[in-house]
Write a structure and sequence with these properties.
The chain has 267 residues and is mostly helical. Helix content is 73%, strand content 0%. The protein is built from 12 helices and no strands.
Length: 267
Amino acid sequence: MQKETATDQFWRLYSIMKELREKCPWDRKQTIQSLRSLTIEELYELADAIIEEDWVAIRGELGDLLLHFMFYARIAEEQERFTLDQVIKGICDKLVSRHPHIYGDPGSPGDLIEVKDEEDVKRNWEKLKLKEGNPSVLSGVPLSLPAMVKSIRLQEKAAQVGFEWEQPAQVWEKVLEEIDELKEAVGSQDFNKSEEELGDLFFSLVNYARFLRIDPENALERTNKKFIERFKGMEQVAISDGKTLSEMTLKEMDAIWDSIKKQKLQD
């Protein structure tokens, strides 16, 4: 018996989705609006699996996202907006046209564009998007992105046209400048100004992280997970002492926290 290929399974999933839209009350009821929040949830579940480098979970979450992909495509076909074939052809054509260093210059078929490194590739990508009609280098950044992720993408795109510091030290100076401005705003007890300056500080720190080649979203999530682990450990110590954290003083909690921190450093 011939082994089924990924292509076979892809079209099997497509057939299943068509059948579910016809026969299942829940699936038939869904719209692109009702699916939106569910898709976002699935994407975050994939993000969690990636952070944990849990390949079994990554495989499962990719399947869930592929299901959502099929869902949207099927709804579009039902409403005669576009077909699944058009979706796949569109992304194939886009990848070919935006990689002229591999597939050749669309304006001069056969002529490869020379690139030195990944930065050249990204710069060419942004130039091609502008040629395709994007009104701004920043146009491709979704408005609904979380603020930190959005700031990363905005800075990366601005850098592609040369709007970028040259050295990490320059960025760090900007961070220190923003800290001083935040202190001044807080001292004036101006809430709106303090909020603005805090945002500027966050933006500068994200920029500094980029220069260090650190993903600030991942860095913050690692700290979140570390805090959760240590806080839960602190709760367990309190329970073993017959107490709750709310019954302890801050000094007592700090002592437990420091003990857990030292233990983790020794492990």
